[in-house]
């Protein structure tokens, strides 16, 4: 076998992927792109090193510079999210949830949770991290018209079952969780409140969504690569002052679920936090404005966009129904036209592989400089593909032309241009 050829085939596929995303409209709600400084950290020597333990207490030598990085990254996270505890070692949001479950619950403990069919992340389900930990899952009622937890029903559920943990947070996340009233009830029952901020972490850091740590959450987990445009990774945040619980959280991470924890990603997280402290408010605000403009434009095109009476969305996400069992067809057709989105379940759907909806995210288009006016153009492309049935290749060519003006990463550090970094996505 020609292994050198195999290696260059992999390289060529990666280059083609770069071109694909630089000439399309990337609208997956759980993705984003990195600033040049973040990318630089990912190819630094940190990428192959180990630093088990904590700064100053390592199991390996050679960590003195990484200790500086990790301490600075924790400091930046605490400042960004206004908290006293930040663990930046997690390689993903799912492992952050796993660490919290390991730290704060035992197998067989009851936890209340939104069902995955109603928009919760798979790590909260019986096939994910919660199930692996052996937790007994009790679902909140859901209000499909408002795409949110049924508050009265959730209060009744928490009071009836007195769970060890009350879990909140979603993958389909259009509106803030009614966290304050639910947290008050949970705490009355001796329940710890955990909020999964994976999708909305950047909106929270930018002060444009809700503020879970001020609204009653004891622990916040999150992903650092969605609306917060950092590297793939996870984080745990808290303002808990009880040393025993804080120590358990640390042990839940290491040796719990993470050994070597991707030092280059930690360094890139630090860069992302520093950038978000400067640009996060403007970026998060523009994301939400773009999402709302996109939703309205899609509605005007004739799409059945969810939650029109509530203003469609207060996050980066937009969800619309396309027809029974047509979500997969719609996502595949959009991809052929150069629009990258994902099929998604909507209220009434029964099977995740046969959904009726499409979920869109505005965060990446915002990151490359698109604003409200461009959302009208994007909605027009989607309507021409899915409602008018125009040839996908024709629209794909138009989108490639459209994208030529949006090749620069914004809302990040760059010497010589205050506020923006100009970095070609295709070399």
List the helices and strands and how they pair.
Elements: H1 3-23, E1 25-26, H2 36-42, E2 53-54, E3 57-58, H3 64-81, E4 85-87, H4 93-104, E5 110-113, H5 129-132, E6 136-139, E7 142-143, E8 148-149, H6 151-161, E9 165-168, H7 179-188, E10 192-196, H8 201-205, E11 219-223, E12 234-238, H9 243-257, H10 263-301, E13 304-305, E14 317-321, H11 327-336, E15 339-340, E16 342-344, E17 357-361, H12 363-367, H13 372-386, H14 392-403
Parallel strand pairs: 1-15, 5-6, 5-9, 9-10, 10-11
Antiparallel strand pairs: 2-3, 4-12, 7-8, 11-12, 13-14, 14-17, 16-17
Helix pairs in contact: 2-10, 3-10, 4-9, 6-7, 10-13
What can you see in these coordinates?
The chain has 427 residues and is α/β, with parallel strands linked by helices. The chain has a domain at 39-272: Aspartate Aminotransferase, domain 2 (3-Layer(aba) Sandwich), CATH 3.40.640.10. The protein has 14 helices and 17 strands. The protein has helices at residues 3-23, 36-42, 64-81, 93-104, 129-132, 151-161, 179-188, 201-205, 243-257, 263-301, 327-336, 363-367, 372-386, 392-403; strands at residues 25-26, 53-54, 57-58, 85-87, 110-113, 136-139, 142-143, 148-149, 165-168, 192-196, 219-223, 234-238, 304-305, 317-321, 339-340, 342-344, 357-361. The chain is globular.
Structure at a glance:
The chain is of the alpha/beta class. Helices cover 43% and strands 13% of the residues.
Please give the CATH class of the domain at 39-272: Alpha Beta
Strand fraction band?
5-15%
For the sheet with most strands, the description reads: 7 strands, mixed
Mean pLDDT comes to 94
CATH architectural name of the domain at 39-272: 3-Layer(aba) Sandwich
Number of strands: 17
Radius of gyration: 22 Å
Low-confidence stretches: 415-427
| Annotation field: number of helices | 14
**What fold name goes in the CATH topology slot of the domain at 39-272?**
Aspartate Aminotransferase, domain 2
Principal-axis shape equals globular
- Share in helix: 40-55%
Terminal Cα separation, in Å? 31 Å
Strands ordered across the widest β-sheet: 4-12-11-10-9-5-6
- Summing up helix and strand content along with how strands pair, one would put the structural category as alpha/beta
The named CATH superfamily of the domain at 39-272 = Type I PLP-dependent aspartate aminotransferase-like (Major domain)
